C-alpha cells in the first residue's frame, strides 16, 4: 500500500514562465518495512547550474529525519559530466548512493549536451537499498528521454 504521499514545490521559478517544478514522494508499505520513493524533474539548463543544484538539495533535504530506505529518481537535467559530479556530491551528503547505469546517453536528443560529452540527464539514487540489475531503455519512443530503471532489494533486517 501507498502511504503518506507528498508534493514538494522546488525552489526557483523558471525565467520564461514563472512556473516551479515539483517532486513527488510516497511511503510504500513492504509488509512491515517502509520504503520512500521519490520522483522528480528539476529545471532545464535555462536555469543556472547553482539553482538546479539547490533544487536537487531541496529534494534530498525533504527526506528530513526519515531513517528508512529510499529510492529517488528522475530527470535532474545534468547537462555536463561536471554537473553529474556536483549532483552526486549533493546526494552523498545525506547518504544517497548512485545507481550506476550502463554507459550511454539517457536522452535521444543529441543536442542536449556539452560538446564531446555523453548526455546523462536522468539518475537513480538509493539509500539503505541493494542495487541489482539496472538499465536504460533506449528503444522507448514516448519522450526524448529514455526510461532509466533499477531493481533494488532491501537489506536483511538488523538483528535485535
Kindly describe this structure:
Helices cover 16% and strands 32% of the residues. The chain has 160 residues and is of the alpha+beta class. The strands form 2 sheets. A 6-stranded mixed beta sheet has the order 1-2-3-4-6-5, covered by helices on one side. Strand 3 (34-41), helix 1 and strand 4 form a beta-alpha-beta unit. Helix 1 runs parallel beside helix 2. The longest helix is centred in the middle third of the chain and has 13 residues, at 49-61. The mean pLDDT is 86.
SS class: alpha+beta
Mean pLDDT rating? 86
Number of E strands: 8
- Unreliable spans are none
Rg result: 16 Å
Shape: globular
SSE succession: EEEHEHEEEE
- Describe the sheet with the most strands: 6 strands, mixed
Strand line-up across the major sheet? 1-2-3-4-6-5
N- to C-terminal distance: 26 Å
What proportion of the residues form beta strands (DSSP E)?
25-35%
Helix fraction, binned, reads: 10-25%
Number of DSSP helical runs: 2
Amino acid at each position: 500500500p501507498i502511504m503518506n504521499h507528498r508534493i514538494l514545490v522546488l525552489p526557483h521559478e523558471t525565467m520564461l514562465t514563472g512556473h516551479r517544478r515539483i517532486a513527488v514522494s510516497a511511503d510504500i508499505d513492504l509488509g512491515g518495512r517502509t520504503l520512500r520513493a521519490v520522483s522528480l524533474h528539476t529545471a532545464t539548463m535555462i536555469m543556472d547550474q547553482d539553482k538546479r543544484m539547490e533544487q536537487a538539495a531541496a529534494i534530498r533535504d525533504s527526506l528530513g529525519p526519515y531513517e528508512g530506505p529510499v529510492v529517488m529518481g528522475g530527470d535532474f537535467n545534468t547537462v555536463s559530466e561536471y554537473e553529474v559530479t556536483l549532483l552526486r556530491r549533493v546526494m552523498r551528503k545525506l547518504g544517497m548512493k548512485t545507481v550506476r547505469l550502463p554507459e550511454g546517453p539517457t536522452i535521444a536528443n543529441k543536442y542536449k549536451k556539452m560538446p564531446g560529452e555523453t548526455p546523462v540527464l536522468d539518475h537513480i539514487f538509493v539509500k539503505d537499498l541493494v542495487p541489482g540489475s539496472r538499465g536504460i531503455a533506449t528503444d522507448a519512443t514516448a519522450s526524448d528521454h529514455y526510461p532509466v530503471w533499477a531493481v533494488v532489494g532491501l537489506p536483511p533486517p538488523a538483528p535485535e
